[in-house]
UniProtKB/TrEMBL annotation:
<dbReference type="InterPro" id="IPR010406">
    <property type="entry name" value="DUF1003"/>
</dbReference>
<keyword id="KW-0472">Membrane</keyword>
<keyword id="KW-0812">Transmembrane</keyword>
<feature type="transmembrane region" description="Helical">
    <location>
        <begin position="63"/>
        <end position="83"/>
    </location>
</feature>
<feature type="region of interest" description="Disordered">
    <location>
        <begin position="144"/>
        <end position="179"/>
    </location>
</feature>
<keyword id="KW-1133">Transmembrane helix</keyword>
<dbReference type="Pfam" id="PF06210">
    <property type="entry name" value="DUF1003"/>
</dbReference>
<feature type="transmembrane region" description="Helical">
    <location>
        <begin position="34"/>
        <end position="57"/>
    </location>
</feature>
<protein>
    <submittedName>
        <fullName>DUF1003 domain-containing protein</fullName>
    </submittedName>
</protein>
Length: 179
């Protein structure tokens, strides 16, 4: 806002990226369409210079046609090299990103492996349901030996508990003994 705009009439701003234009040209030079167009031009050129007597601008050795091909080759080769260099730069950047991503993935994998190992160690120290059942069965067997009377099985114990505990509707409320 503080700076005057100046004259728009002579303010020419051309953003010409030679690399991008070179890549487009190199891509076009490698297509079948280009080969078909070039072949058509050469056939018409030769036909007009051999058959049409009044339109001969380049007689038989076709020196002007050779000059055109040499000029085209002189510009096509550097454009192709420019496109290859830009592609190499993009590939280098992509490779660096892939390396950093691979390093991060490796670090994450190693971290998860360490966490998994620590969880396995921690789970190994926790009492499991089977361990508790086995211990309770041993205690039950010891009680039966000491008293000489069989103890109630879990199903019988649930039925006795359900008979003792009833709600207002008269239906038995079964306590959850598994938890």
């Amino acid at each position: 806002m503080d700076t005057p705009r100046g004259s728009r009439m002579f303010n020419v701003n051309v953003d010409f990226d030679l690399g991008r234009s070179g890549e487009k040209a190199a891509r076009f030079l490698g297509t079948g369409r280009y080969l078909a167009i070039q072949t058509g031009i050469v056939i018409v050129w030769i036909f007009l210079n051999v058959v049409a007597v009044n339109l001969r601008w380049d007689p038989y050795p076709f020196i002007l046609l050779n000059l055109a091909f040499s000029t085209q080759a002189a510009y096509a080769a550097p454009l192709i090299l420019l496109a290859q260099n830009r592609q190499d730069d993009r590939d280098r950047v992509s490779l660096e990103e892939d390396r950093s991503r691979a390093q991060q993935t490796k670090a994450d994998t190693e971290f998860l492996a360490r966490e998994l190992a620590s969880l396995r160690i921690a789970v190994g120290e926790v009492a499991t349901r089977d361990y508790l059942r086995r211990e309770l069965d041993e205690i039950k067997a010891l009680l039966e030996q000491a008293t000489g009377q069989p103890t109630a099985t879990p199903k019988k114990a649930r039925k006795k508990a359900a008979a003792r505990v009833q709600d207002d509707s008269g239906t038995p409320e079964v306590p959850d003994l598994d938890t």
